[in-house]
Amino acid sequence: MAVSIRLRREGAKNRPYYKVVVADSRSPREGKFIEIIGTYDPKKPGHNSALKVDRAEYWIARGAQPSDTVRSLIKKNKKQEVPASAAAASTLAGPAPAPVTPPEVSASTPEAT
Question: Which domains does the chain have, with CATH numbers?
Fold first, then answer.
């Protein structure tokens, strides 16, 4: 069975909205699918897609062929994932602790013998 990762059109007339699906390449565009791995809204400005990159990589490793648009969406979402994970790691770690300096021993205090 030839598996492809492609867009499934939804939404109203002149207001397209797509779901990124893993499907048999022989099934129709709005037909049966194996798994939904994301969404894409071309009318939305800025970051307009949400995609499970790990699931896309899983299917590609097993021979699924992404369409050209899906391939570019995977690439964009990987770029979004890298800065987000770096920012999340820095916020989880919190601020760096201040260096601890040992207290100074003054000459006027008597030492215990």
Answer: 3-69 (3.30.1320.10)
Q: How does pLDDT run across 24-63, given as a tens digit for each residue? A: 988 888 888 899 999 999 999 988 899 999 999 999 999 9
Q: Which structure tokens are listed for 86? A: 């770096």
- The model carries a pTM of 0.69
Q: List CB contacts of 103: < 8 A, sequence separation 6 or more.
A: none
